[in-house]
Specification:
single chain; 166 residues; FAS1 domain; 7-stranded mixed β-sheet; 7 helices; 7 strands; 22% strand; globular
Length: 166
């Protein structure tokens, strides 16, 4: 990324909270999150085929943060994706980096992603790419299998691969 592109990205990233606050329900392309829902993003991920994500997030020391008020957008890989990636034996720092790469501060619904290509800064500090221009929304090289699973503190999208920060 060139210096000018990086500046533009950082400027746009800094404006996202302001834009999100203006969107209906305080989210990005999405109705109101929460709506009395006491489930956290980790609860929702666990119930929708990504229990491993919840377990590894807690092992990485991110469970309490993800139980907070948010909002968070979680791109949670399926349990099968974690088995294929072989992450169970990673150390805490490596897990924090990888799991944090699946967490985007703010709320990003599928209606916001559709038809666009964008980059988002993750909780790990790295950038991931979202491409909603095709028949399937893609996050880096992963396909989004299920979208808009609403939690009391954000939204979860289930993906078919574990994302790796560069």
């Amino acid at each position: 990324m060139t210096c000018m592109n990086r500046r533009r990205f950082l400027l746009l990233a800094s404006l996202l909270p302001a834009v999100s606050a203006c969107a209906p329900g305080g989210g990005t392309g999405f109705g109101e999150f929460g709506s009395g829902n006491a489930d956290t993003v980790l609860d929702v991920a666990r119930r929708n085929g990504s229990g491993t994500f919840g377990t590894l997030a807690e092992r990485a020391g991110l469970g309490e943060r993800l139980g907070g008020s948010g909002p968070f957008t979680i791109f949670a890989p399926t349990d099968a994706a974690f088995r294929a990636a072989g992450l169970r034996r990673s150390d805490e720092e490596e897990l924090r980096r990888i799991i944090g790469y699946h967490i985007v501060p703010g709320q990003i619904g599928s209606s916001f992603m559709e038809g666009l290509e964008m980059n988002h800064l993750t909780a790990s500090g790295a950038t991931l790419s979202i491409d909603g221009r095709g028949d399937v929304i893609r996050v880096n090289d992963s396909r989004v299998l299920r979208t808009d699973l609403v939690a009391g503190n954000g939204v979860v999208h289930i993906i078919d691969r574990v994302l790796r920060p560069e």
